[in-house]
Amino acid sequence: MEIRLVNGPLEQLEADALVALCAEGAKPGGIADPRISELFESGEFTGKAEEITILHAPNGMKAKRLVLAGTGAPPEFTSLKARNLSGEALRKLKSKGLRSVIFDAAALPDADWVAAIVEGAILADFEPDVHKTDPKKNEKHIDSFAVVGGSQAALDRGRILGEAQNAARALVNEPGNLLTPLKLAAAAQAMASQFGLKCDVLDQQRMGQLGMGSLLGVAMGSAQPPALIVIEYHPAHETGVKDHLALIGKGVTFDTGGISIKPADSMEKMKYDMAGGAAVIGAMQAIAQLKPAIAVTALIPAVENMPGSRALRPGDILQSLNGKTVEVLNTDAEGRLILIDAITYSQRLGCTHLVDAATLTGAIVVALGHLRIGAFTNNEQFLARVMSAATAEDERMWQLPTDEEYKEGLKSAFADLQNIGTRAGGSITAAMFLREFAGDTPWVHLDIAGTAWLDEAKPYLAKGPTGVCVRSFVRLAMDW
Ligand code: BES
Ligand code: ZN
Ligand code: ZN
Question: Are 49 and 81 in contact (CB under 8 A)?
Fold first, then answer.
């Protein structure tokens, strides 16, 4: 889909469809067709939020169709709603087989809105069907999405963010047989070389020499070798920013549970257990292009959790990179085991602020459903920064507690820690486990098990991976 800027009087613009925004009860200005009044008078179209109506051969216009898109009352219409509305319109028009769309963004307040319109269209254009072989599947696609009003810079920003999220979504969609840890590393390297970032992939041997026993333990049950993917962004010039952000993403390319095996029902979804890793790779793709003032290092511990003959057994004891020993009581609590070695390694690389994103616990779905990301921290000020970036991007988070007492359940008789607590408060004990390794370094943990995957399509987004956290991470870095 080509994205471009167009100018000129609306009537003169040629396209299969021209999308015009309509506030509730207010007819769009500058369009002469009397049928618009009729639509409003009959109540068939009112301008309610997310309402979309298509009018063929609008009077005096070159566009073949006029699409009225309702925004609701103006105070309710935000750039975030604009993103979804643009996406909804795009998916609707695409499903009808249209090829070229023009979006009238001339009346929008500022560049953020224009970026949101473009981003929404790109996100909406994503389809999870790359492995379907029927050539007909390509019959319906939008070739050209043009925006009236706005600047090239706003268009570019929207495009960069939209593409970064789609890149993450594409990785998450890949099944476990096609996206192994080494393939994920290759994808990260390809992205890094395309966008001018440094990418270092630590293999099993190097991780062994360093002493990453916890990460390597999880990898034991799989024939697929593990990798620790490290991608670095540094500002080109001295910016005066001394902080160094680490974005750490869980990269379990498939989670069977290992010896503590998961039930068969829905196990296929566990290909999305690398959604945190994918989000971090996507965020780095945008960061490379938008160039924030802070240094950012992404770390993705990538493994496959399988019950092979060399797999971890319940009761096994592992020594992590920072020296602490862990008794593995449940091999399905593997995310935390790989994340702790990545956390320690990020500290060794000099990172001063750590954020991790992980599809860590089923319990977070019980607690927060599919709307909010569970957020945990050892530093309230840092969490406030992360949450304000997330709020601005409409990626909703909710803080959960990290009182010391929650640590009790992680005491082991045989090692420094055990990898699970009691069933109660499962997302919190998982976070407490990670916290032990973050120490005093400001750290935020985001449990995205409930928000990284859409079980049903939305009008503006296909079923499957959401790309959650990409936008928040990019904004966090840009706002530093
Ligand atoms: N990857 C899962 C968490 C998960 C569950 C993600 C459902 C997405 C949807 C994680 O590795 C896991 O299995 N966690 C266990 C922890 C338990 C053994 C303490 C869980 O949530 O059941
Ligand atoms: Zn698991
Ligand atoms: Zn997992």
Answer: yes
Nearest atom in ligand 1 to the alpha carbon of residue 361 is 21
User: Would you say the CB of residue 447 lies under 6 angstroms from ligand 1?
Assistant: no
Q: Return the bridge partners of 223, or none.
A: none
Q: How many CB atoms lie within 10 A of CB 399?
A: 15
Residue 143 tokens, joined: 């070739």
Please answer whether residues 385 and 476 qualify as being in contact, where contact means their C-beta atoms are separated by less than 8 angstroms. yes
Residue of 64, 140, 262, 458 marked catalytic = 262
Residue 226 is given by DSSP the state: P
CA dist 34 to 15, 38, 226, 300, 459, Å? 21, 7, 64, 57, 29
Helix (H, G, I), strand (E, B) or coil at 173: helix
Write the pLDDT tens digit of every residue in 149-162: 999 999 999 999 99
Distances (CA, A) of 1 to 121, 142, 194, 248: 9, 6, 20, 31
What's the maximum distance between 2 C-alpha atoms anywhere in the chain? 80
Please report how many Cα atoms fall inside a 13 Å half-sphere around the Cα of residue 97, on the Cβ side. 2
Ligand 1 pocket, 90 CB below 6 A?
no
- Ligand 2 (single-atom ion) residues, CB below 5 Å: 255, 332, 334
Q: Assess whether 372 carries a catalytic annotation.
A: no
In this prediction, residue 135 carries a pLDDT of 74
Domains and CATH numbers, the chain: 2-150 (3.40.220.10), 176-478 (3.40.630.10)
What are 54-57's contacts with CB under 8 Å, separation 24+?
54/17, 54/92, 54/96
User: Distances in Å between the alpha carbon of 67 and those of 19, 45, 47, 341?
Assistant: 5, 11, 12, 52
User: Which residue ranges in the chain fall short of pLDDT 50?
Assistant: none
357-390 pLDDT, tens digit per residue, is 999 999 999 999 999 999 999 999 999 999 999 9
DSSP state for residue 349 in the 8-state scheme: T
Is ligand 1 within 6 A of the CB of residue 330? yes
According to DSSP, residue 166 is labeled H
Which among 250, 361, 429 is the best mutation to test ligand 1's pocket, defined by most ligand atoms within 8 Å of the CB?
Answer: 361
172 pocket-lining for ligand 1 (C-beta < 6 Å): no
Ligand nearest to the CA of 312: 2
Q: Say if ligand 1 is within 6 A of residue 283 CB.
A: no
Q: Does the annotation mark 262 as catalytic?
A: yes
Of the bound ligands, which one is closest to the alpha carbon of residue 257? 2
